[in-house]
């Protein structure tokens, strides 16, 4: 009888131990699963953070590149095959003439010192210098009549054309100095302002002129163009 009770106690104890062991295994599995899920979640979070950081860096680099390109585009061109602009003064490559264009204007990428184009930042206004020396000089120029009324009969530059000034001087040897300015309208651009100044020397066979064309509405540009024409100089 006593042996049966002891045996029964052992059986019960073993059953309790087995149950406890099973619970421990289940708990261990649950803990392991939770740990695995936590690690996986952490790795996913790290990957997402890394991806976001990489995207931010790419965006920042892209913005910096765009700013650099924009800066390059907005920087005026100050030198080409025609000459260069230094301290606001353009000097031709041969050093034979100079002119002071409006501040911030840019040289055209193409051209040589015989025809130089200089444009405003907005691209609506431009200054053009023409220089010819030698046998072609006489053919490159326009021969202006002595009076404005005579010239009015020869040209047409759109609607409501009006002369702001007209000053032409002729010499007996065929040399000529000229300067005039006018306003006119075109259907595409509205009011435009055109001014030109230059000379032809028959003795040296040298022709030079600077002409400004303005389409923008800023009246201050007219003054800048007139100042540039004043600065045109043969050296």
TrEMBL record:
Start-end of Polar residues biased regions? 35-48
Residue ranges, annotated region (Disordered):
26-93
Q: Which PROSITE patterns match?
A: PROKAR_LIPOPROTEIN
| UniProt keyword terms in alphabetical order | Signal
Compositional bias ranges of the Acidic residues kind: 58-71
Query: Does Signal appear among the keywords?
Result: yes
Note whether Signal occurs among the keywords.
yes
Q: Where is the signal peptide?
A: 1-22
The highest taxon in the source lineage is: Bacteria
Q: What is this protein called?
A: DUF1795 domain-containing protein
């Amino acid at each position: 009888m006593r042996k049966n009770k002891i045996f029964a106690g052992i059986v019960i104890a073993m059953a309790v131990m087995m149950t406890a062991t099973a619970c421990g295994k289940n708990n261990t599995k649950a803990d392991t699963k939770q740990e695995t899920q936590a690690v996986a979640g952490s790795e996913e979070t790290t990957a997402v953070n890394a991806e976001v950081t990489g995207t931010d860096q790419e965006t920042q680099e892209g913005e910096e590149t765009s700013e650099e390109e924009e800066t390059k585009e907005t920087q005026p061109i100050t030198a080409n095959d025609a000459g260069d602009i230094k301290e606001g003064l353009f000097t031709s490559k041969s050093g034979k003439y100079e002119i002071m264009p409006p501040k911030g204007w840019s040289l055209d990428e193409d051209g040589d010192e015989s025809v130089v184009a200089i444009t405003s930042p907005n691209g609506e206004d431009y200054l053009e210098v023409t220089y010819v020396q030698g046998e072609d000089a006489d053919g490159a120029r326009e021969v202006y009549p002595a009076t404005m009324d005579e010239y009015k009969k020869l040209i047409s530059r759109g609607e409501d054309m009006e002369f702001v000034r007209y000053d032409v001087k002729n010499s007996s040897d065929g040399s000529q100095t000229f300067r005039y300015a006018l306003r006119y309208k075109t259907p595409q651009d509205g009011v435009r302002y055109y001014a030109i100044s230059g000379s032809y020397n028959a003795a040296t066979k040298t022709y030079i002129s600077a002409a400004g064309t303005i389409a923008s509405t800023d009246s201050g540009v007219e003054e800048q163009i007139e100042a540039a024409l004043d600065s045109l100089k043969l050296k």
